[in-house]
């Protein structure tokens, strides 16, 4: 017969969180002191947890959390088998698992569950206690397509805690090694921050997977918010993000959520490239020089002819998306001159070949009060396109690469992309 002292919870391996009702049966009918006692949130609740267990070299459970479990349940395996569960939050049984007498609503940062069935009562209680703003729910050892996960996902969606495919757990949540899989539900802010990071660091495969999951969850407004955030951050990778979604066959996501200029470029449709400040569309000269190149101009009047029709051709280089800019009237590619003028600027030309680095361009989105514009920077020379401040006898303006930084004046250096009619 086990000595009563030996049945006490193991607070050598586990941290004693000093909860006064941990060793008592379920007494939810009384008015109890609810967690958290202070204004701070509870760090972690392990649903059906039994504390940290090492069994055969494998780890399960956690040493520093509250464990929701049946009122008479003891540790079921490992060296502490038969002892009371540390930091237990008691519930009547697996079918009557309501912790509202012990845990306040919306008060827990992390809720975990390991290989235990998820029923409507437990799904509702997990959703009730997890914090909507900073919370996370992680389920171990259960396939994402299982009925229990679907049940939990439906409840958590009311708080916008959403499934995140292939989420890499923080180190603390990787401590259990008994389970080789997990399903994570993240709060909106954490999910949006993760997706923003995936795009900005070039982890496009993960960005596409998460975005498709958001679409499947019918939360397209979150995709819209992400794209708006990328645009306002002037994140050039927003074009690569759209291109990867399009290439993966998610045409509806690109069409439904991206602004018109990104859609036009991604779909390689004919466009007009219009200097915002002077409202002139780019064209190539009708005459060629001795190398059969054509100077590029802003046209003072024409915004409809084939001369002002262009396409952006994507070129992937070291996981970065650049573009060649093709004039469809002459089938010539825009480039900057290898020689500089008096102020260090370079003339822009159309050429028949496109095999030089001077033919590659980086696009940066900018949001202005009057609408979106692009800064178009040459990859070889680091100069962004601009129109000359002076006009010729036709009112047209030469196109140049600007010698200097243009980020501070997108209203002057920005380009509007419209569909070519």
TrEMBL record:
Primary location: secreted
GO cellular component: extracellular region
InterPro entries: Lipoprotein_11, Lipoprotein_11_N
Tree of life domain: Eukaryota
Keywords (A to Z) from UniProt: Lipoprotein, Secreted, Signal
Keyword Transport in record: no
Keyword match Secreted: yes
Record's subcellular location: Secreted
Gene3D superfamilies linked: 2.80.10.50, Lepidopteran low molecular weight (30 kD) lipoprotein, N-terminal domain
Entry's family note: Belongs to the 30 kDa lipoprotein family.
Protein name in the entry: 30K protein 19
Organism: Bombyx mori (Silk moth)
